[in-house]
Structure formats: structure tokens, C-alpha cells
Amino acid sequence: MTPPHREDTERPVAALLVPDILTLLDESPESVALDTAEMHPADLADVAEAMPEDRLLDFLLALPTARAADVLEYLDEERRTELFEGLTARQAAALVSQMQPDDRADVLEEMEDERAEEILAEIPAEARAETEALLQYEPDSAGGRMTTEFVSAPETMTVEEALRGVRTMARSERREAFYTVYTTDVSGRLLGVMSLRELLAAPEGGRLADIAWTEVQTVSPHDSQESVARIATDYDLVAVPVVDEDRRLLGVVTVDDVIDAIQEEQTEDVQKLGGMEALDEPYMQISFLHMLRKRAGWLSILMVSEMFTTSVLQHYDVELRRAAVLILFVPLVMSSGGNSGSQSTSLITRAMALGEVTLRDWWRVAIRELPSGIALGTILGVIAIVRIFLWQQLALYDYTDNGRVTVIRFALTVAFALVGIVTFGSLTGSMLPFLLKRLGFDPASASAPLVATLVDMTGLAIYFTTALLFLRGTLL
Amino acid sequence: MTPPHREDTERPVAALLVPDILTLLDESPESVALDTAEMHPADLADVAEAMPEDRLLDFLLALPTARAADVLEYLDEERRTELFEGLTARQAAALVSQMQPDDRADVLEEMEDERAEEILAEIPAEARAETEALLQYEPDSAGGRMTTEFVSAPETMTVEEALRGVRTMARSERREAFYTVYTTDVSGRLLGVMSLRELLAAPEGGRLADIAWTEVQTVSPHDSQESVARIATDYDLVAVPVVDEDRRLLGVVTVDDVIDAIQEEQTEDVQKLGGMEALDEPYMQISFLHMLRKRAGWLSILMVSEMFTTSVLQHYDVELRRAAVLILFVPLVMSSGGNSGSQSTSLITRAMALGEVTLRDWWRVAIRELPSGIALGTILGVIAIVRIFLWQQLALYDYTDNGRVTVIRFALTVAFALVGIVTFGSLTGSMLPFLLKRLGFDPASASAPLVATLVDMTGLAIYFTTALLFLRGTLL
């Protein structure tokens, strides 16, 4: 079966095949496997997700076990959990045994501990040990992301032996990390690396030690998935080897998991930048209460911090009552500082995430942001002056407060306050990620709302100070 | 040479080798190639970047041309441009001829048109035609990202013939997309795909047509790099084939370019989310004026929009003069709406970028965000009530405005306004990306500052309306 394409989606809409497959399941379940044999497991997972829940199990059982396991790897977490609840431990074990070791560990990680134990107990001993080893690592560490099915060979092996081995392996097993061959010494210590292409190109009769590169980029199993992604990206690797303290090869993180890690880290960064905790689950699948918890914390902290603006306003109570015209530009002046800060924060947190900027570069950033802030503030200041004069000329509003202040003085107050606040915003927004990183926090926590809140308080103080300077003797 | 590691970086600090390499360049330039033979080109590029500018050319010329071309691929754009300026067109052509076709096109794209033409003229005819074909596509399209060096074979070929061909190819050429074999008909139309592993595992004597998968995911050369990334991620592909309207295979986008595309798109999204245009260049390399242009536009638009708050405040001028106590909570109330909107916007734009949410899902999102907004607003409202009563009790401030209003009425005004504003913020923040996408704009343009600005105006109106409702007859 070939999934049809629909105009407004980039992917074939496999879900449209559901009715056909359901009919087939009713009439001749044995032909389901054959009819879907050419379909990619990702498309079959789409079909499975669009199917009525009570038919999902029938559908997967109609597929060969290895194929069903492939589909499971692409199924969304919620659906997968539901499905496993409908299986006996033995049935579940048969399925997960066919999965790649790293995906198997991920699936078991999602379940209740007790249930995972039950299923693990039914898995063949070797695969069980392997899975238990993987389960001991944090899911977002190199160890949690790695697969234990890689290709390694003693460095004394000849090219021909290695090629024969690779071919046998290709037939008998489903090694995920197939295109990189690692050479080891007798005790399994990593010595070198070559691509399968280099192995294929090697002159016959040579030994692996002759062609392997001895300069190998490695990670420890406890390294973050972020650092694995950094190495894979910097060196264009399709697999990153994970070694223990003795440089023994434990596993490899393959490029598809590297991409997943990159996407996951990016999602976290964007959510933090938006002013909340990272959700850890897709937006459409997370429970309502769970999402609320992730959002309410920061929202409350930000509001409590923003209360200082109330205190600042209380402090300038007298001035405010005497010069009510100042109030009009409070939101404008505050938001401009927040906006420029938001720009700087996104620029710097992203540059840090990409490794373009490190802690040492803080002063280099500061001497870029200082003139940027002044220039941007000046542009906004000029716009504000134009607006104030325009409104006054068109008699839309009387900024002289019944003649007690000149328009020019008031306009200059707003303009200079803008220069000060936008400069302060740019500096705060750019330096906060450095400060957080220096203190050991995630620089991505320097969210746009947090910067805006910090700038709001100071911004008000800058605005009123400028006003006192420019309007002294007239309004104040 | 092995680059040393430094504690605070994840990558070896190749730059520390610079003095050794400079000495070697002076004393025996012919041994530079041998001494650095085991180093990864990415590390050599780090060395090159840390070197005094006037030695860079000597260093690259001391390496074999193919190796120098590898280093060039990893060099940062600025350095590379400088370097090419110091070369004759013929020298430059010798270097770029050795690069992968897609990287070669990228490098030429960076140069002045005239200079690129000069260099192109010196490149051998076949490579020139290939490069010119690639240069016609937008750099961020599938065509701009693809390489023309892929492995394809007629589907009638036997497994043994194909394997021999692959091995010869591995020796003679540097095909980037080596691990996926495409089968074609006589006129070059794409028919099927297999991984190199599947080819190695295939029974001898079979034909490629027997083992190839006929369900192939393809893109058009004009598709965006985003959709290439989506397909590679969804189907875990190490290469995505690019075909023309007749399904003739034009090239493939390899996984390293997919990762670059993902990173690039993500950088753009984060920068837009921060309220500016995407920079297109790394933060530390972009020119000051260029960066200013990317930031000033949105900052000005946002400020001009925020001027409507001034109009709203002017509208409520009388109320403000009569009930100055209302002013105190203006920043708090406004920022809370902006913050909840910022959360929703980052959640939704990211979910859209990942394909978790499509245009059709808008109402599903709306019925999640509506109760979220109400719940979050209620939490903030309760905090505000506690704060107001606390300050009044501790005599830190007199919210009764000299007894003209009861504390409870004032507290309720703020609390109910918060519920309204946070709900409005969440809805605006979540619906804006849908609206933008529906209108054909990039949903990522729904930046946190833009949402905050939209919510500020409405927020003020909600606040004053609530005040009129609760304080009518007392203060107002």
C-alpha cells in the first residue's frame, strides 16, 4: 500500500489508509503483513495512531514481531503505554526484545517500575543484562542515548576478515551503528575508528590498524546529550563512541539519536526562553495539571518580582500626582527596555547553545551590546519625540499639562529615558545568560519575561530620574 | 599531533597547538602534513582560525590540496573569505575543486559574484557544470543543500556487480552520501532505495530490484530545508533524495546538512521569538550595522504599537487622576498578561516547528489554553490579593486612597483584572501563530515582545473596565 499525499502536508497521510487496513484485518488478517510490507514503519505508526484503540493490538499482532517492534519505536508515547497495558508480560517481552537496545530501554523507562520489571524478567538473559546496563543511565545522558549494538574488531584483524565479518553481521543482526567500525585492543579498549567506506576502500591484505584513525572523539556515558550533539555536529560524525574511564567501548550514540537530542534540547531552550519550565512532553500530550505546574511557578515568580515596580511607583507617588502626564509613557518606556532585552537574551542564549560564545567572551559581548543599546535607544527616542510633537501640534493631547511644562522638555525626558532604558535592557539581556552560567545555572533560564521584569523596575527608576532632571522647577 | 583537552571546554583545544605548528612551518614545512595527518579537519580548522592571519595561507599550502579543502569546509566564513582574497583564481580553483560539490557551491555563494565567476572559470568543466547547477537553487532549499555525489545503480544490476561498483567507488571517489544506494530506470528516474547494510546482506546472485524498497521519501529541489529536515527526522534517514518533476534523481541531502539545517532553522526561530529579524550570520561575526538593522525594525514597530497604550491611558485620564492608586498596579497587570502570552507563544511556535501541531489543531489548542489562562490568572490573582492585604495590614501603603475605597474592592479589581488579562494573554499568545500561518506568514514571527505588546493595550482596557465595575460609586 502507498500512503496518498495531501496538499497541505509535507508527509504522506498514512492515516487515510486506516479504513482499508481495518477491512483487511477483518477479512484476511494474514495479508496485512504482505500488503504493508513496503511501508516505512513511521507511516505504519501513523496508521496505528489513527486507528480505533481497540484495533491497535490486533493490527500489531498481524505484523511479524520484528516489524511490530519497528512500528512501536515510532509510536507516540501515550499510545505505546496504553498498548502495553493490554499485553501480557510475555507478549510485551517478545515485542521489546526485537527493538534496538536503546529504544527498548527508552520504552521500559516510560513504564511504571513494577511493570517494567515484569517485562524485563521475560526477556532473554543476554538482552536483559544489556537493557539493565542501559537503564542505569539518565535518559538524557550519553549513556541513556547510546546503543550497545556497534561494530568493533581487534586492530590486528585483516581487512578481508573484517569485511567478511561485517557482511555476516549485516545478514544476521540489526546493528544500528553500522557505518562506523571501531578497533579495540584485547581488553576492549578503543584504539581507532574508520568509516565503512574506508574499510571497503582499504587495500586487501592490510590490517585494520593500518587504516584506522587513532584520533577518536569520545564521550563518557555520564556526559550530557548536549555535548554528544556538539561533538557530532562539530566533527560531522554519524556515530559518537561512549567509553568508560579505562577507554573501554560501552556503546555508540547514532546520528538519529543525536538529532532527537538536538530537537529535545532546542524545545527545552525555547520553552525556557518563553518564561516557563521545560515541559518534557509534547504540548498536545501533556496533562493539564502537569502543564499548569510548569507554567505557574515562573509566572508567580515573575509577578512577585514585578511587584517591585509597584514599590517604585509608590516611591514616586508625589511626583506622579503632580505630573500625571508622566504616567502616559510608563508602559511605552518599560516595554521598550523589555523588548531590547528580549532580543539580546535570545541572541546570546542561542549563541551559547551553539558554542559560538563561551563564558570568556562576556566582555566582547558587552562591548557589542553597549553601542547597540545606545543606537537602538536613540532611534526609539527620535520616534518618541516625533510622536509627542505631532500629537501636540495636531492638538490630540496637551503634554504641557496646562502650560506647566514645555513640550520640548517633556519630549526630551521620554527620549533620554528611552536611550538609558534600551541600553540597560540590552546589557541586562546579554549579561544575564553569562551570569547564570557562571553561577552554575542553565543560561537558557534567562527568559525574555525574566529580563523584561528586571528591566521594568530599573526602567521606571531611570524614567523618573530623567524626569526629575529635565522637569525640575517646572512640573516637579 | 594530539590536541590537548582543557577542563572548561568539551572539545580538545586544538588552538593550543598553534605555536608548535608555526615553528614546524618555519623549520620544516614539508613535515606539517605528516605531523597533522591524524588530526580531524575540524581541529585543523580550529588551529587555522587561531593562527596569525599572515600564516594561514602558508599553513594550508603546506597540506595536501584535498586535506586543505577539508579544512576549508570547517573554517569560519569570515576567515575563508579573507583567505580566498589572498589567492589567485587558479589557486582558489584548485582548492575548491577538491571540496564536496555542495560545500563548493556554498563557498562560492559567499563570495562577490565577480570573484566567484573568475574561480569557476578555472574549475574543470564537469565540476563547473555541476557547481553551476547547484548555485541556481536558494541556499536554504533542498537543492541548495544537496550534494550531487550519491550512489545510484540501474535496478537490473546484480548484487555482486553493485558491491564491486561500491568498492571501486569507495577507493576512487569521495562520495558523501555513501550509505544509501538508489536504484533507477534507464532514464535516471528513481525507483527504489536500500541501505548499504541491506546491499551487503543481500543474497548473492539477486538483482537490486529484488532488495530495494519501492516506497521512497523524496523532496523537490525547491522544497525548504525545513521540510527536508522534517522527513529525515520522521523517517530516521541518513540521506534524503531530491528529484525533479519527472522523478529523476538530482542529488541527496546528507544527514550532516540536515543537522545544519535544523540548527539554522532553530536559530532563526529563537531570534524571531526574541522579537527581531533572523540574523543569518553568527552573532560574533555579524557587522554592527547589519545587526542594528535586524533589531531596529521590530523594536520600532513594537514601540509604535505600544503607543496605543498611551492612547488608552489618555482615554482613562479622568479616572487616573481621580484614582491614582490604580496606577500602581498597571505594570504588574500588564506584564502578567505579556508573560502568560510569551509562554503560550513559545509553546505553540515550537510545537508547530516540530510538526506536533498543525493549522487544523487551532481549536484543540484554544480549548487547552482557555482553562490554562483562567487557572494561571486565578493563581496570580490570589497572590495579588495577599500582597495588597499584607501591605495594608503592615501599613506599608494605604490602598484605600484616604478611605475613599475599601481594600477588598481594590484587591478584587486587581485580581479579576489579572484573571481576564492572563486568560486573554494565553489565548492571544497561542492563537497568533495560527493566525500568522493562516495568512501565509512565518508563525515564528509571533514573538514574545509582539504578543506582550498586543496584550498590553487590551490588558489596560481590561484593567480599567474591571476598575469601573468594582469601584463605581467609590473612587470612580
Q: Can you walk me through this structure?
A:
Two copies of one chain form a homodimer. With 476 residues, chain A is mainly alpha-helical. Chain A contains 22 helices and five strands. Chain A has a three-stranded mixed beta sheet with strand order 1-2-3. In chain A, helix 15 crosses helix 16 (255-273).
Mean of all residue-level pLDDT scores of chain A: 87
Helix content of chain A: 55-70%
Outline the low-pLDDT stretches of chain A: 6-10
What's the arrangement of strands in the largest beta sheet of chain A? 1-2-3
Number of helices of chain A: 22
Distance from first to last alpha carbon of chain A: 80 Å
Structural class, judged by helices and strands of chain A? mainly alpha
Radius of gyration of chain A: 31 Å
Largest sheet of chain A: 3 strands, mixed
Strand content of chain A: 5-15%
Largest interface: A-B, 127 and 127 residues
List its salient traits.
homodimer; mainly alpha; 3-stranded mixed beta sheet; 22 helices; two-stranded antiparallel sheet; about 475 residues
SSE layout:
Two copies of one chain form a homodimer.
Chain A: H1 18-27, H2 32-35, H3 41-50, H4 53-61, H5 65-74, H6 77-85, H7 89-97, H8 101-110, H9 113-122, H10 125-135, H11 142-145, E1 150-154, H12 159-172, E2 177-184, E3 190-195, H13 196-201, H14 208-211, H15 225-235, E4 239-243, E5 249-254, H16 255-273, H17 288-315, H18 317-322, H19 330-353, H20 362-393, H21 407-438, H22 448-471
Parallel strand pairs in A: 1-2
Antiparallel strand pairs in A: 2-3, 4-5
Helix pairs in contact in A: 3-5, 5-7, 7-9, 8-10, 15-16, 17-22, 19-20, 19-21, 19-22, 20-21, 21-22
